[in-house]
Here is the input.
Amino acid sequence: MKKLIISLVSVAACMLNAATVDIRTTEFRNYKVGETVTFTVTAKADDGSLMKDGVFTVYVRDSGIDTAEICKPIEIDLSKANPAKFTAKLDRPGFIFASPSSYKTADGKYNRWKSSALKPCDGGAAVEPEKIRQGGTMPSDFDEFWQKSLAEYKNAKITVKEDPEIKRPGCKVSRERVEFPDGSGFIDGFLSIPEGAGKFPAIVSVPGAGHGTTSPYVLVRSSQKCIELHMNVHPYPTMKTSPEMSKLYKDMNSKLTTKAYQHEFAWDRDKYVYRKVWSALSRAIDYVAQLPQFDGKHFAASGNSQGGGTALAMGYLNKNITCVAASVPALCDHGGYLAKRQSGWPRLHKSLKGRADKTAPYFDGANFTAKIKVPTIITVGYIDRTCSPSSVYAAYNNLKSPVKQIFPMYLNGHRPSPQGFRALTKFLNWHFSQ
Here is the structure.
């Protein structure tokens, strides 16, 4: 059984009524297996002053998985130490996750900490993440499965219609739709083409999980003028407002047996949503690659979360893709759960309790990265509870690309930091200038 070895170290004392808690390593770097990692815990009131009272517990887990061995909880008493420190060790490559409970005030009331995607409560540390290996294996017919699927969609019907109501300075925006050949649905979204003469690089993306986008702008972008293809993944029309999209999304999920599109038919590789979506998206990329405005040399796949996982898939599936920029990618290391690590969203093994075991490997970012040969950048949040950092590293470590980069975000959850966005943009700009 893997163990974390914990000791509590007190430091200074101070003030009142905490609103936020910050848990971070004393050094922003990766650690060695068995090396002592020191965390500092700082609690602040709404006015930014250090709290003088409050008691809470910090739980420390190996790679963040709920079923991993939980070490003795650490009790923090802010009347005795604020900041406080504790140490931890990990005896295998992975991530240490430290999560605080609600805090109890001197009058016996419990309060939750303020938290956001850019400023979560948790703390995290990487332990030799470059040695993390995916929990699953590559199916022997992985290539055959995907080449057959792409062939089915090679001549899928595409409709592109300019929409003058969509205002995007410097671009003409069209609505693009790709029909599924079996008649079961479609994907659609936006195609933005810069106005004026010239040849332009291109970027393709899908949004993160949820109801979809109403915007023609891709999230992970270059600062150069680009053709942008931003496609939704759901078989309902892209509407003008988020409330309209949200209603369609709720209606769609309510009719599914699993009540969640990311799990529906995950036990049948031919019917699973991402087989259809990724095959249709590849067809849409082929269409853009034939446009006279495309420069014929630079076509990036980018995205965040679900979009990041899709970018990794496109890096292998479509021959036109020349670069990948994946932000906190989902759909990675499904088998990590079997190795007692937290898998990336949508956590097929845990959610479907074995029903997805035979399907998951065909949709695993760690298997796609093993076949990507183009320049690739991936960002990873060290305290990401949605797309766990161990799952992202499992995918990154399979990359054979001659040019590859991983950008660590030590204090981030499931959202890129401003520095992460800048790194992605810089990478895209570099590639487009080649």
Notes: Residues 1-18 have pLDDT under 50 and may be disordered. The CA atoms of residues 211 and 249 lie 5 Å apart. The chain has two domains: 7-131, 142-432. The chain is about 20% helix and 25% strand.
